[in-house]
Amino acid sequence: SSGINAEYGKISEVQQKNLQTLRQKIQDTNWARKKEHTEAGSLLQTLEGQWLELVGKNYSVERACGELELEVDRLERERSERLSAPPPAPDSSVSGDPV
């Protein structure tokens, strides 16, 4: 009986060590995951900031393009008006005849 108890004691001791090792591995895995999540969170914040900056730049570029389109339209209208306007009348104060 004491031999069986001693054997159970050895088995129990080995299993306790295995359990401690397994718990340590679980804790190490959890810490590694937590570290990865923290790093991923930092990266996401950085990328979100960059994305917001690019969205702002895109808005500025779109607004500038709109302003340039309006300016081009205005210049084309002015050019068209100049081309379709009748030529100026000759200035009567300037004549080729001597006075």
Task: List its traits.
84% helix; 99 residues; mainly alpha; single chain
Describe the protein's architecture and organization.
With 99 residues, the protein is mostly helical. The protein is built from one helix and no strands. It is rod-shaped, with a radius of gyration of 43 Å. The relative contact order is 0.04.
Brief write-up:
The chain is mostly helical. Helix content is 84%, strand content 0%.
- What quaternary form is this? single chain
- Kindly estimate the percentage of residues that lie in beta strands according to DSSP: under 5%
Helix content: over 70%
**What composes the largest sheet?**
none
Low-confidence stretches: none
Average pLDDT: 91
Shape summary: rod-shaped
Estimated radius of gyration: 43 Å
Order of helices and strands: H
Distance between the termini: 150 Å
- Strands, total number: 0
- Please, how many helices? 1
- Structural class of the helix and strand makeup? mainly alpha
List the helices and strands and how they pair.
Blueprint: H1 2-84
